[in-house]
Amino acid sequence: MSKLPNEHKFIDLSDYGRIPARIMATAIKETTLTPIHVTVSFIISGIIAIICILNHQFWAASFFLILKSVLDAADGELARIKDTPSYTGRYFDSISDILLNLLIFTALWFITDSHFISAILAFLGVQLQGTLYNYYYTILRNRFNGDTTSRVFEIETPIALIGEKQKHVDILFRLYKILYGGFDKIIYTLDKNAPNSKSFPNWFMTAVSTFGLGFQLLLIGLMLVLGFKEYIIPFFIIYSVMIFVFIGIRKIF
């Protein structure tokens, strides 16, 4: 099941794992496995990738980073197939992503000559990039009958859906706000009027999808196996300039 109707679908460069994720979700839909179990599996895959980075096993690291992306898509696919959307899963997924990203860039700092401040700047840049992409994508999904568990503005604690506990939603939402609140405020400040846009051209969303986490992890994996580990942190710092470019293009169109 797509997150958008056909006329608003775009080529999502960060979503290369969608087909295998859908196959995986379909294969386990009749089992007792839940989307949360799949989210835990992508956390494990991400941790293995980090261990491989620290041990300079870059081919293995690349494999597990890509596997992590596939599993990251599979938890949402399973939730849609089983018709069990949840805020618990949504926030647990996002919290896991940001913590793994921090560990990945810490590992990259450890194996390169980069300054620790540069690694933090790259991490912050990656998060702002991802926030902009998610901001635009969530606007589309909410406007055109897509997923409703992702909200354009995460201000108030949502009411738990059927099958989840309000206590869990409350705790995870607080953690989400602590970890993502600052990034959300920065992006919203930079482009307050985005929710009022009639639509975003498909070509534009394809370009912005290079900010998606799946594409970011793919780039990291490719740069590792190609011997460009020293350039990963500087690249993501510099590429953050595209945040202002994309916002400028959005405002023009």
Structure description:
With 253 residues, the protein is an all-alpha fold. The chain has a single domain (13-252), classed as Four Helix Bundle (Hemerythrin (Met), subunit A) (Up-down Bundle). 69% of the residues lie in helices and 0% in strands. It contains ten helices and no strands. Helix 2 packs antiparallel against helix 3 (58-81), helix 3 (58-81) runs antiparallel to helix 8 (213-225) and helix 5 packs across helix 6. The longest helix has 28 residues, at 116-143. The model has no long low-confidence stretch (mean pLDDT 93).
Give the SSE layout.
Elements: H1 18-28, H2 35-54, H3 58-81, H4 87-111, H5 116-143, H6 166-190, H7 202-208, H8 213-225, H9 229-239, H10 242-252
Helix pairs in contact: 1-3, 2-3, 2-4, 3-8, 4-5, 4-6, 4-9, 5-6, 5-9
How many domains make up the 3D coordinates? 1
**Can you tell me the overall shape?**
globular
- In the CATH hierarchy, the architecture is Up-down Bundle
Q: Element order, helices and strands?
A: HHHHHHHHHH
Keywords:
Four Helix Bundle (Hemerythrin (Met), subunit A), single chain, 10 helices, mainly alpha, 253 residues
Brief synopsis:
This protein is mainly alpha-helical. The protein is built from ten helices and no strands.
